[in-house]
Design brief:
The complex is a heterodimer of chains A (175) and B (197).
Chain A: E1 2-4, E2 11-13, E3 17-21, E4 28-32, E5 47-50, E6 53-65, E7 68-77, E8 82-88, E9 91-96, E10 100-102, E11 116-119, E12 122-131, E13 137-142, E14 147-154, E15 157-166, E16 171-172
Antiparallel strand pairs in A: 1-2, 3-4, 5-6, 5-16, 6-7, 7-8, 8-9, 9-15, 10-15, 11-12, 12-13, 13-14, 14-15
Chain B: E1 2-7, E2 14-16, E3 26-28, E4 34-37, E5 43-47, E6 62-65, E7 68-79, E8 84-92, E9 96-103, E10 106-112, E11 129-132, E12 135-154, E13 163-171, E14 176-182, E15 187-195
Antiparallel strand pairs in B: 1-2, 3-4, 3-12, 4-5, 6-7, 7-8, 7-12, 8-9, 9-10, 10-15, 11-12, 12-13, 13-14, 14-15
Classes of the chains: A mainly beta (175), B mainly beta (197).
Chain lengths: 175, 197
């Protein structure tokens, strides 16, 4: 798409924002046309560092849920070990790529924020409830060491993933 | 393709949509106080009857925190029996949301912390201590507040008069603040430092 400036006539190539007017109700709004300016701390196939430890992001999957969109990057460290880097704005966690089924009688609905639970030998506090669109329901539990336990509730079983929260300011692109 | 700005459904003022729109719940016109539903085609829900007082920062203003530009995307004003404070939501596309709080005539910028306190903060009393990430904080105040004004792109459904709980603690040694807010779906903890806006 190429247009000319109505004031000076200069050519504007690929305008990023356009004003759209609804023919039905006459309300107008602006649309950002270019999604290539998607900014993220993590770029696919590029190195990044968490506290000086190097990782590469291999793939990224988006998981829409009731509160937003969670980005899961499959990342590999220098030893070839794989992790999931879960990114949701300021909420970033490095979690194990494997899920384990746990034998606990817990209900997602009863795990309200600030509920204390003892699981896998550790005391946890429920910090968030999540309902994924068309998928499982999850509870996020954290502890005093900034560890994360994600409980996924599906059918008649509960699976869990463990990880560690990461401060966005701990991620860099240079070691 | 994403919506970047709209006109207020009531007063037609142009409103920039800042922040992460996938997390947005309400867009509130900073000119007339109309609350619009982000998830329902910006339907006008109601209008705030109160007006903001003494806001020293504006929506769209950019602040620098650790070399990262954060944009002010919303503000929420709270009042309690003997205090009032303003919470500004600030956003960076790479570092997410942080909070800038204008309280007691000074600004503090808070970022989220996942090192939970060693005690249940909400069971403590003023001047009790707790530890988070090896730092000992003293609980300064609990604020049981009423929301009296909000504007901008908010991550929660908001309502004038909505009551909420906020906890503020301080560490003299490291000069760091600790803040917590408790809502229906989440309890969040933040650590902060004084900020010159």
């Amino acid at each position: 798409m190429k247009i000319n400036c109505p004031h000076c006539g200069a050519t504007i190539e690929k305008p990023k924002i356009i004003l759209v007017k609804c023919g039905f109700c006459s309300s107008s709004f602006m649309l950002e046309m270019d999604d290539n300016n998607f900014q993220s701390l993590i770029q696919l196939n590029k190195f990044f560092y968490i506290k000086s430890k190097a990782f590469t992001a291999l793939t990224m999957v988006q998981h829409p849920h009731d509160e937003g969109i969670r980005l899961d990057y499959l990342v590999k460290d220098s030893h070839g070990d794989e992790f999931i880097l879960m990114v949701e704005d300021e909420n970033i966690a490095l979690i194990q790529s494997t899920q384990e089924v746990i034998n606990e009688k817990l209900k997602w609905s009863s795990l309200l924020p600030n509920t204390q639970v003892k699981l896998l030998g550790t005391h946890w506090l429920v910090t968030q409830k999540r309902a994924y669109i068309g998928k499982n329901k999850q509870s996020y539990l954290s502890n005093q060491s900034a560890e994360l336990l994600i409980l996924s509730f599906a059918n008649n079983y509960i699976s869990c993933q463990q990880g560690k929260w990461v401060d966005a300011f701990e991620i860099s692109h240079e070691n | 393709m994403k919506i970047n700005a709209i006109h207020c459904k009531k007063c037609q003022a142009p409103l920039a949509i800042l922040g992460n729109t996938s997390r947005s719940k309400n867009l509130i016109c900073q000119y007339c106080g109309t609350v619009m539903d982000f998830k329902n085609n910006f339907k006008a829900l109601y209008s705030f009857t109160q007006r903001q007082q003494n806001s020293r920062l504006t929506i769209g203003q950019i602040i620098d925190y650790h070399g990262i530009p954060f944009t002010i995307v919303a503000n929420t004003s709270y009042s309690s029996r003997d205090n009032h404070f303003i919470v500004y939501n600030v956003y960076s596309p790479t570092h997410g949301y942080a909070k800038l709080i204008d309280k007691d005539n000074s600004f503090t910028i808070y970022q989220k912390i996942h090192y939970l306190p060693d005690k249940n903060l909400w069971m403590l009393k003023q001047n009790d201590t707790f530890i988070s990430n090896k730092i000992k904080f003293t609980l300064k105040s609990f604020e049981f507040c009423e929301l009296y004004y909000a504007a901008g792109n908010l991550l929660e459904n908001t309502k004038q008069g909505k009551r909420s709980k906020h906890a503020f603690a301080y560490c003299k040694k490291t000069k760091q603040w600790f803040y917590s807010e408790h809502s229906r779906n989440a309890v969040n903890y933040y650590v902060g430092v004084d900020f010159k806006a």
